[in-house]
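USER: Fancy drafting a protein?

ASSISTANT:
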Amino acid sequence: MSGKYKINKVKQEHTIIEDILPLLEDMARHPSIKSIIPGRINRRSGSGVEPHLQIKYETSSGIKLQAKNSSSIQEVFVVADKSQRVLNWLKKSSKVRC
C-alpha cells in the first residue's frame, strides 16, 4: 500500500488538523463533490477559534478552502464537477466562512 487512501471521498495521504475531518466528511455528502484533498498544514498563533472551513477561491477543477482551528491552518482542495453549486451549498453551512 502506498500510504494514500480515500474514505468517503476524503483523501487521507496527509495528516488532517484536529476536528476538521468530521467537517470534510460532512461536506463529502454533496453529490457534485468528487474528491477532497487536504494539503499542507501550517501553525498559527492560538486564537481560540472553533474548527471551521473558509472559502478561498475557485480553481479549474473545483474550490480551494482553508481549514482552521485555534493552532493550525490547512489547505483543502475540493474537486467538483459543478463548483458553483457546491459554493452556494457551502456558503449556507454554519461551519464554512466566506
